[in-house]
Every structure is written in structure tokens, then in C-alpha cells.
User: Fold this.
Amino acid sequence: MDGTMLAVVEDAGTEAWLDQALQGLGRLEKVTRSDLGRVLRMLEATGASVALVEMTDRDATQSMAVINALSNARPWVTVIAVTRIADQETVLQCMRSGARDCVIVGSDGAELRDRLRRHQLVRPSHWGEELQSKVRNLTMVTAVTPQIDSAFFAQNLAVSMAAQRPGQRILAIDMDARGDTVFHSDSKNNFDLGQLLSSPDTLDETLIDTALEEYRPGLRLLAGGPGSDFLGDRGADLFIALTRLMTMFDHIVLNVGAVSQSAWVRVIGVHVRELLLLANQEVPVVRAARDNIADWRPYLASNTDILVVVDGYEPAVPPKADELGDSVGAEIAATLPMEWKQRLEAINLAQPILESAPKSGYGKAVKALSARLMGNTKAQSGKGWLKRA
Assistant:
């Protein structure tokens, strides 16, 4: 067996044993589990066909989450749990999380090498060397600058999606929620993503249906929670929670705002089907949008759509929409008129603009975009499509 293997290890003793046991079998790259985004990126960058994940009693939950995330992101990779004590319960937990085998630190190196060779003979074929989640029904909404209200847009997008697909289950998550409200609504934030992650074992449809009332038929809203930080050690928990939520809902709209959007893309980029980037016609914002797209592309699946939405669009002011598309290197999926009066009324009434001003240009543009996203249709040609290598 030749090639690269990835070891997700914390303990120096475990690392030393792996170096010795796998000597001559291939190149062994190492990374800690503290940053799941980096682990996934290393898996992609190295093209590793084997991932060995250290399992410890002290951090068992985090270890299981990493195993689950790796096996979900790249199902064709052989994930092996590495532990010091392999009792029956530990082995079962590892297998349920997605590991294909469990080895004990200090065991015979020749046996480990033989087991890895056998796993490689029967491992499933991959579908192209790319990072991709098994289930991809997530639309991420972000903004180049905090001056652009991505929460207002995401709320109306989710409402429109629910209206266009009666009977489907849609979840809208607002990481920019403030106080006890979520998005610009009158829904109270009694349950948030932070609470959900504090007890991941209880996450099921019964909990969601009980904790989150329908905001509109088929649509539920979830806040991120005050001071929530899911981008460090809790990145694995977030990855797993979203994986579960994506199996419970037909579609998820996630608003991450403009503050930590790059970190979000790194952590959960493999889940994203469409990434909607809100920008405006200001030249510095256009340049920032172009740089963001270039930075984010490596963390997304090759078939993820990066779409730019121009907020507060003034057709009489350059650059025009087609010029913006060429400048940022992505399709301009929608242009939203400012219509400040209608927006302010909707915010103050705690209603979607689709309901408070159903004839507004903003609402019509959101409806057209949501119809495209829910129909999973793409333009066949034209300017502005993302330029890929």
C-alpha cells in the first residue's frame, strides 16, 4: 500500500507508535482535532485514503464527532479509530460513528499494516477526489460587510421557500440573532443552537418539533444563541449537528452574517449546496467579494454554486449587474432594490416584506431566486458564471 495517510492525534506516545508501526507503508501526515475545518482541509489537500483518529476516554465525544465528520465528508476514505483500550462498548461506538476498524496503541505493527492493506482492497470507490457531504440541502447566506442586512434577506428567502413548497420542512438558522428574537420576527428565542449542541444525543425530530414552533407553515426558525462560538473546538459538534438537521429537514437556510463567514465556510463548506454572498455596488465591497470567493472555493465542493446577490441595487449607477458579475467572478443571481420605506415597515412590524409589501420589487426578486433554488435549476449560459480552473 503506497500513498498518504492522515493521523488525527493529540498524544505524543500515540503519534510515536504510529510513526513506527506504519514505517515504510506510506507518508503519514498529522493534525490535531481542535480545528475540524483544518482536519477536513488536510484530508483534501493530502488526498489521503486512510484517516487514523485517536480515541481517548477524556475526549470521547469529540473523537466520535471527528470520526463521523470524516466518514460523512469523504465516505470512500478508510477511517480507523486508534485507542488504548478497545472494550466492546468503545468498539461499537467507533463503528456507529463511521470507523471501519479499531486498533490498539502498542499492538503489533505488522498486524496493523496487514489490516490497512486489506481495508484498501475492499474500500468503496470514490466519486472524484473532492470534498462533498452525502446530504447537501443547505443554503448559506453571508454578506461582505455588516452594513448589509443578511438576516432580513435570509428570513424572506426562507419564507418564500416554504410558501413555494407546501408540505416540506424548512429550517432557517440565524447566527446574527440579537436578544430574545430571531431574524426580524416576533418569534421568541427560547431555544438556540448552543443549547442543541450542549446535548447532541437528544437531537431528534421530537425535540425540534417541541422546541421550535412553526413560524410559517413548514418553516421553523432557530437562533445561534448569545455569544455562540462554534468555530474552535466545537467545530466537530457543529458539523455533526448540521449533518443530523439536514436529514430532518428538506432544506436549511443558514445566515452567518458578515463577521466570521470565512471560518464558517472552512468548518461546514462541504455541506453547502448554494452560497449566497450579499454585496452592493461600492467598489471596495466588490473587491472584497471577489477576494472572498477566491478564498472560499477550496473549502467547498466543486458543484457548490457561489451566487452573488446585489443589495440596494441602483440600475442607473455603475457598475451594472453584468459588470459586477465579471468583476467578482460569479453569477449575479439577484438584484434587490433598496425600497427603504417598505423594508423599515416590515422590520418594525416584525413581518416578512413578502407579506407587509407583497408587490415590492424586493419581494419579487426574492421569490424568483427562491423558485430557482427550490427547483434546483441553473442558467445554461451567460456572463457572470464562476470562473473555475
